[in-house]
Amino acid sequence: MGHVQAVMRWQMDEGSYTRKLGRTLASYAEAGGEAPPTVLPASALVRAASLRFPQTPLAPVAPLHLSGHTMPVYGMAFSPDGRLLATASGDRTARLWDPDTGEHLRTLTGHTEPVVGVAFSPDGDLLATASGDTTARLWDPGTGQHLRSATRHTQPVVGVAFSPYGRLLATASGDTARLWDPGTGRYLRALTGHTGQVNGMAFSPYGRLLATASDDTTARLWDVTGADSARRTDWLRRE
After folding, report:
1. CATH 2.130.10.10 domain locations along the chain
2. Distance CA 6, CA 25 (A)
3. Tell me, what's the pLDDT at 14?
4. How confident is the model at residue 4, as a pLDDT?
5. CA 48 to mean position of chain CA atoms
6. Which regions of the chain are under pLDDT 50?
7. 134 near 157, Cβ under 8 Å?
8. Residue 169 needs a FRET pair 20 to 30 A away by CA distance; which of 4, 58, 60, 129 works?
9. How far out from the chain centre does Cα 178 lie?
10. How far, in Å, CA of 89 to CA of 198, rounded?
11. For residues 212 and 198, what is the distance between their CA atoms, to the nearest angstrom?
12. Using one digit for the tens of pLDDT, what is the confidence trace for 29-44?
């Protein structure tokens, strides 16, 4: 299997091909981000020829109700292949569900305060949870096994995010975002400079930048690719 170098754009209402969105492998390096893996997982590949879209709107269906949590649900995330849905709750657990049937598959226990965020790694092999107990945890979503914890925070962890190829995990706690190696749990560095709570994070498509949003009225952009990764590269301030 070779590298994926392009995707096809389709007209969703008719299923017709409109144009090719191409990007050579070299352009990933030019963008300064994470290099793509040698072989993309099979779950990440879609055969364009098999895509079929209805030409008439689908009839509405009754929603599935996922019942089991005993406190408010604060966050959710689908696995990359769409076969799992993870939910985060104030009952101090995360739960995994079959989104096709609504069946509860397993409960992830161990946090001692509300779980407020969840995120799957791009290959679906890891699930990260953020909690008010000042930790982020990594789990095997297939078994529910707790693998490792990120424990250097001193305030509640309010968010978790994986880089596009899963080589970094970012956590938000207090006025700081932190970077970790999700494969080993090794702490890498802190991104400091905000003067208010960091509420959200997002990686750029090629993994070179991490954006952080804060109560201090700013969003900041950080270069996370090299030794210089704690350097703020830009910021946006409400005037």
Report:
1. 73-237
2. 9
3. 45
4. 42
5. 25
6. 1-30, 38-40, 43-49, 227-239
7. yes
8. 4
9. 15
10. 20
11. 7
12. 445 566 555 444 554 4
| Lookup: tokens for 112 | 């001692």
Q: Rounded CA gap, 123 and 100, in Å? A: 20
CB 23 within 8 A of CB 36: no
User: 73-237 maps to which CATH number?
Assistant: 2.130.10.10
Q: Which residues pair with 83 in a beta bridge?
A: none
pLDDT value of residue 44: 47
Task: For residue 139, give the nearest of 201, 63, 79, 199 by alpha carbon.
Answer: 79
Q: Which stretch of DSSP H or E encloses residue 29?
A: helix 25-30
Q: Which pair of tokens denotes residue 105? A: 């598959």
- In this structure, how many other beta carbons lie within 10 angstroms of the beta carbon of residue 178? 21
Name the CA dihedral angle for 8, 10, 15, 16, rounded to a multiple of 10 degrees: -90
Residue 125 has, within 13 A of its CA and on its CB side, a CA count of: 10
- 3 state SS of 50: helix
Calculate the dihedral angle through the C-alpha atoms of 68, 75, 178, 143, rounding to the nearest 10 degrees: 40
Rounded to whole angstroms, the Cα distance separating 98 from 107 reads 13
Closest CA to 116 of 79, 154, 86, 89: 89
**Alpha-carbon distance 176 to 157, whole Å?**
10
User: At 119, which amino acid appears?
Assistant: A
